[in-house]
């Protein structure tokens, strides 16, 4: 499942005796600080030590991820960086359980166990030492500190579970509903970590997160097809005369190119439509918002430069363009 937005294979590792493979693609937006946040009191030294060990595990997982993740943390204030790592570790591990399990049945079992662990995590009556995974120890601290709602975490798990049984979508509305659970919760949690609890801001964040997800679908038509998944809605394929078998060709035919042109323009509208969010949040968070939104737009430009042939070669944003985007974001030149 592609839940935040750019794929990159990396090495496997272990955390506190639990296997966590990292081979996915989510790229979370930078997490802002929350001015009123206060850390919950830990009643005893043993629990403080347990939390420190858990946070170290989350930090190592996050820092072992590919370089674009590290770039994405550059603008995150140090005071809340650990909360970002804890949130990332939860999402990353759930994504890996969905993608790395040997079968859909095994994935569903693993995801149900992860859901059970999360429900224990938010049960404040349960001692830290009884939580089933160190990630939940660290995550509880972040949830309590920032008063994060549980629903976005559960929505993400529903999307990962859906990936095990649904491999394509009949309509664009169905695809948007999938994005509502697979991508949008991340942005909403980011806003809550930044002290932003406003439906209007949520709506703008949803447009960016959905846009990033859709851009990834356009970019990875070949890769998703190999995995048995098709994220180009059937109604759109029918409209442009694209058969499912056309996705197996070595090169994109003209009907598929026309379809991709349509999808790219619609996706760009989502990304551009969410950019006003950057004008309504703290400046350092605005940098991340603009960086990721413009990164999605650059992915769409790469598809255009390749004449919409996403089958022959996966469109990529060049290293130079990545550096340029980062530099412009750092000096506030992205808008």
CATH class category: Mainly Alpha
What string gives the helices and strands in order?
A: EEHHHHHHHHHHHHHH
For the terminal residues, how far apart are their CA atoms? 30 Å
What kind of sheet is the major sheet? Answer: 2 strands, antiparallel
Low-confidence stretches: 1-36, 67-71
Strand content: under 5%
From the alpha-carbon coordinates, what is the Rg to the nearest angstrom?
20 Å
How many discrete structural domains? 1
Instruction: Give the class from helix and strand content and strand pairing.
Output: mainly alpha
Share in helix: 55-70%
**Strand order in the sheet with the most strands:** 1-2
Shape annotation: globular
Based on the coordinates given, report the CATH architecture.
Answer: Orthogonal Bundle
The CATH homologous superfamily: Farnesyl Diphosphate Synthase
Mean pLDDT, to the nearest integer, reads: 86
Looking at CATH, which topology would you report? Farnesyl Diphosphate Synthase
Number of strands: 2
Number of distinct helices: 14
GO molecular function: geranylgeranyl diphosphate synthase activity; squalene synthase [NAD(P)H] activity
Protein name: All-trans-phytoene synthase
Pfam families: SQS_PSY
General description of the model:
The protein is mostly helical. The protein has one domain: Orthogonal Bundle (Farnesyl Diphosphate Synthase). It has helices at about 45-65, 65-70, 80-100, 105-120, 135-145, 150-160, 170-180, 185-195, 200-220, 220-225, 235-240, 255-275, 285-305, 320-330, and strands at about 15, 20. Residues about 1-35 and about 65-70 have low confidence and may be disordered.
